[in-house]
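WARN no homologs supplied; continuing
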Amino acid sequence: MYEPDRNPFSAKPFHSGLSTRGMALAALFAVLTGVGANVRIPFPMVPLTLQTVFVLMAGLLLGPGRAALSMFLYMLLGLLGLPFFSGGGGIQSVLTPSFGFVVGFIPASWAVGRVLQMSGYAHEKAGLRLAALRVVACLVGIAIYDLVGVFWLYVNLNWIVGKEVSFLQTLGIGLFPFLIPDLIKLAGVVLLVSLAGRRIGLLTSFRR
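OK structure emitted
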């Protein structure tokens, strides 16, 4: 049965869920995303990694505020020097072609959680309706980090790297090769979260 009073995605202010445990979970997903960055398949300019698995999962499990916080912590730790990005880490990473995707992870994870929050079904028993909603939420998240990442890639290649690349060519570098892999990762994330059901959902069912 749906329990509105226990819904962690309710429209209450973000600070009501920002607890020590909430910070710990945000930090956990930040580290997991960094680990995922080191599981990669080389591609020109933008490598294929498992970062996005944890970006989407954070949005599905932590809610919008904590998910965005986890991705901000991930970016911050990488900029401080931890090897959390596909090319390593450090402040110089902001000049790399793929850094826009890292920036895009923050609004993307927020959007995934926000879609669930607005639906009101985030804490229901597992079912086709909830699984479909998770798919939609993840598609929104993927669209957002792709939009930010491709725009950053276009600007970087043309004004920092110094190559004359059209926007269509940029899509061929940073978007088209990753559409099917992203959909496969989306399916895996939704399947994992759906199979685990409320056990995974309990990660977010705290108030203090």
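Helices lie at 20-37, 51-79, 99-119, 128-160, 167-174, 179-196, 198-201.
OK
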